[in-house]
Amino acid sequence: MLQPYAQNSNSLYEKASLSVALQRKISIVIPLYNESKSVAHLQQRLERAQIHLDKYIVEFVLVDDASQDDTLNRLKSAFADTNNVKIVAGEKNLGVMGAIMFGLNHASHNTVCSMDSDCSYAPEDICKLVDALHEGVTMVVGSPYHPDARVHNVPRWRIVVSKAASTIYRWLLRTKLNCYTSCFRAYRKQDIENIHLKRTGFEGTVELVWAVERHNLKTVECPADLHVRQHGQSSSKLIPVAIKHLTLIKSIVIHRLFGTQTHR
Is residue 162 in some structural domain? Predict the structure, then answer.
């Protein structure tokens, strides 16, 4: 016997509501430092990306890392009418990994992703990160050096330095990745939020891999194409970043040899 129309209608509504409830909720953290010139580009890319991310309920957490330019005001203006964007500002400059951790602590959902504000990794590829965050995985690193990924027009010296660093870290760490320095990642917030990093700059990306390892948690990687930056300038400086990586390498070696950590 056919059900009354009203009951069928309610059933469809209940199914639709259940479908929404079962959608995976993700927060995407994007750190910005002196990026006022690239805010408009970021806005356009995020609008385009939401079409590809429609299977998720998405929250964007934009972190102004104590910029010295007009980044914060431009963010507020550009995203004033966007209801799934949360803008948070740090009181002092933390560095890229510190800003990501700051944003992660402000994220509403347990599945958290991070990406660069210059969109050198395509926001649409967030889906790959989330799909790789299987049960038992704490962190997924998007790797441009994965056999199935490509690097597009990035200066050769950057690639040489990055690959050399990754080779050293692969020797030292139990977690074997093709790339350790990518900020394009997915995390389980409940596993990550209580980890305290000593290094909050670019080298902090590797310290987090090391910390996850020391907590007996799992990091995996997935392929992610890397593109040359199109807008603004990177805040990364080769020599200071290289020195900080050498200091981290020293800490890992001391820990491996003596089971202790240096505080430098």
Answer: yes
Q: For residue 2, is it within any domain?
A: no
DSSP string, 102-141: HHHHH-SSSEEEE--TT-SS-GGGHHHHHHH--TT--EEE
β-partners of residue 135 are none
According to DSSP, the residues that pair with 59 across neighbouring strands are 27
Q: Give CA angle at 204 (202, 207), nearest 5°.
A: 140
Picking from 210, 166, 81, 182, the residue whose alpha carbon sits closest to that of residue 125 is 182
The confidence score (pLDDT) of residue 195 equals 96
Confidence band of 99 (pLDDT split at 50, 70, 90): very high
Is 8 among the domain residues?
no
Domain count, the chain: 1
Query: Which range of residues forms the domain containing residue 203?
Result: 24-258
Q: Domain of 161: which CATH number? A: 3.90.550.10
> What is the rounded CA–CA span in Å between residue 260 and residue 262?
7
Which among 202, 209, 207, 205 is positioned nearest to 237, based on CA atoms?
202
Mean pLDDT of the chain: 88
Mean of pLDDT values over 103-108: 98
Q: Can you tell me the mean pLDDT for 95-105? A: 97
7 belongs to a structural domain: no
